[in-house]
Structures are given as C-alpha cells and as structure tokens.
Amino acid sequence: MKLTRALISVSDKTDLIPFARKLSTFGIEIISTGGTAKVLQAEGIPVTEISKFTNSPEILEGRLKTLHPKVHGGLLYLRESTKHVKEAQSQGIQPIDLVVVNLYPFVATISKEGVTLEEAIEQIDIGGPAMIRSAAKNYQTVTVVTDPDDYASVLEDLEEGEGATTRKLRERLAIKAFATTSSYDAAITHYLNREQETNSAFTLELPLAGRLRYGENPHQNAELYGNFFDYFEKLHGKELSYNNILDIGAASELISEFVKPTVAILKHTNPCGVASDPDLKEAWLKAFATDKQAPFGGIIIANRPVTLALAKAIAEIFSEVIIAPDFEADARSLLQKKKNLRLMRVLQLPAAGAREIRSIPGGILVQDADSAGLGELEHKVVSSRPPDRNELEAMEFGWKVVKHVKSNAIVYASKDCTLGIGAGQMSRIDSSRIAAWKAQEAGLSLKGSAVCSDAFFPFADGLIAAADAGATTAIQPGGSVRDAEVIEAANQRDMAMIFTGTRHFKH
After folding, report:
1. pTM (2 decimals)?
2. Is 268 among the catalytic positions?
C-alpha cells in the first residue's frame, strides 16, 4: 500500500531536507510540528502544520501538540478492519503512514556541566515517544523512523516499491523504535533516581553492535552491545577481540587524564609505561623504557596524531592495537604493512561522569566513574618538608597513572614519565617491591622519584621500602590508623608527603 501521509517532528535535523524533499516527489503529504515545519518551509518543501491538521492549537508552550485523536487515530487504526476504517472516517481521521521522529536531547542535556533538574525535565519528550509507540505498534501498515541513518533504507524501499515500504523494513524499524523509547525512558529513570534518591529499578537496553569470535578465552561466547563504534573507528587490522575492547576502554580512560602530548602502553588493562613529551617519539621512548618486556603484544595509545617517527619506533615491537586521534598518512602506510595490527582512531573520549556497570551473581553493580581530580596539592602536605616544584609535578604525573593500575597499586614516577609500576598484589609492600624491581630490571634509577599509592600505606614498611629504593616524595590518600607512624617515617627520611584524601582502588 502506497504511503499517503507522513508526520515529521525531529530535534536532530541531520539529512532532513533531502529526505523530506524526496518524500514529496512520491506524492506523500508532510505534516510537521513547530521548529521542524519552519525548517521545511524555509526550504520550499510543502508542509502542513500540525495545528491545522488537528484543528487544535499547540498549547502550554509547545508541551501539547501531537497528543490528539487525529494523530494517534491516524497511526493506530487498522487499515484492513472495515469497522476501524468506518470509525476513522466518521471522526474525520486520516491515515498517517510514516512517522519520522527523534526525541528531545535529554541525554545530551544531562551530560552538560551544571545542568539543573528543571532544565533536564524540560527535555523529557512526551509526544515523541507516544507517536513512536503508536506507529511501531501498527507496523503492519505504518513505517516509523527514529534515526536519520535509516532515511536511505526508507527511500530505497519507496523507490523499489513505487511509493510503498516492505513489511521486513517496517518490522525492523518498529523493533528499533521500541528499543529507542525504552533506552530513552531508562536514561530519564536513572537520572531522576540519582537526583531524587528514590528506589526505582535499574534498566538497560543496548543494541547489538556485533558478535565477537569469542570472549576472554576461545571456549567463551561473547557479544558487543551499545555504541562503542561512536567512540572508536577501526582503520586497519583484523577483527577486534573481547580482550582488545577491554584494553581499548582502559587505555582511553587513562589517556583522558593528560593534556600534554602523551603516550601510554597497556597490557591486560594495566599501564606498563606512560610518558609525556612535546615530541611523541620521545614520549614513546620514555614510556617503553619503564618496562621493555611487557609491551610486546600490548596496547599503545597517544593523545596526538601518530607521526612517522613515532610509527617507526612503535613498529620495532609487536603490538595488538594502536589508538590515536589520527595517523599521519605516511605513518598509517607504514603501520598498515603489519596485517594483523589494529589501528583505531579515537572519535571521542568517554564523557566525564559516565557510569560503570559490572555483573555479579544475581545482578549488577553500578557506580560513578572515578573522575576525582587532585586540586591544590600544596595545601595537602603532611610532612615536615614540603615538596619542590619538580617533586610536585612528579606526584601529579604518578597520581594520574596510579588510579588506572589494579589494586594494590604503586607507581614510581618522575615529572613526565613512569619509572616503575607494581599492580594487583595482595600486599601493598609487595606492589612496592615489584615496582622497584621492575625499575631495576629496566635500568632506571628511582633516586628523586615520587612514589604514588592508590590507597593508604597501612604500615610504615611500604613507605620505608620506597625511600630505600630512592623515592624522595610520596603521595597517598591517608586515612590509616597508623598515619602518624607513616608521617614520622617520612620525616625521618626527609621525604615530602601529601595526603590527597581520595582513594583510587581499582578491582
């Protein structure tokens, strides 16, 4: 059955004009609301405003415009039902065969810094979800479009069907429509639940992004859900694995800590070398110097485009994935000679304040991402001796890294690079010893370094081990019942120490 009438109401007007213009060529009448109607009229596209179609004005500052029997009746009545057709005709209800709606930008609004509850509530769409659901329920004859990416498929169907769409397309778009309203409602629920501190349920609806070859191990099935590829684009290399994706996520979270040109190397989501330098190749050399064994088969990320000089240096070892905002043409050509090496372009980094989800037996855990900053360190000195400028910079650098190392975590750092990293040990003293041993193996001196601990030193022994290794400063959260003993140990060794007041456990 040919489409006769379309209702278009979109906040995202990407590709709207060519799509609507093409609909008109099929003889489809276009009805539209407020801002969308104005945009179409300005382009000379014939459009009937919704208030004229319903014979009812938009009221309540636009809050009420499409919740009308002529809209929902036109979407919901069954075309094959004689009773429905007669009733629709008696009520002056005309068929609406195509709904093109995307919703108020609620998620984008709440992602903005300083947004108020009132501003967020105003971006809760009511008419949009209602129209989407009415159209999707009647997908046997009504086509519903919620994403500009689907405009091309609709137009292709209309061309091949001489003005009609296929049931297969309508069914696919209806499923997508219900998923859209479900995830939209979930975002509103989660936001209000946090703001109002109620006890509502947690819901999550994510599209299937792809099925993976396997999970962490070959005997485990795995899938990827969500919009991962809105953040990263694969430019080259074989299929991403489950472990690759975990590593890419960890690498992007780590690199987002740094503003200066920085290169980081990770293995099994743990940093094994991080360095900053105006010359990215020098940053790589300093990061690689931290641990020259672990990076083989690892993940490399830079927060600047990869240069040819950097690419040549990286190409000397085997890596699984290289991630960057971009790759210079000659650098990309060089790296693409490695058939299996995956090159990933960062399209955007995760927004601050994102939530983290982990599965547990019988449920999930949800928490805010660990985005706590440092603030003014000078006001947090607890030792007799304050750190000098170089020591402060070393503390700041190491603190950015240690929060991304699995607990118990110890990082030795200079002002622009890591020198030794100890991760995931049951005892903090063991992590400290491993970090010092790794530095020794790499031939790096810890003299004058900063030791950074993700949680407090429960005893003075961890700090003493760091001092014996050469550290002259320490940065840690504090909060142990033996803090006084640790501070005394630092003073006896003329170490400068800062208590941040913030712990960075990473399990």
Report:
1. 0.69
2. yes
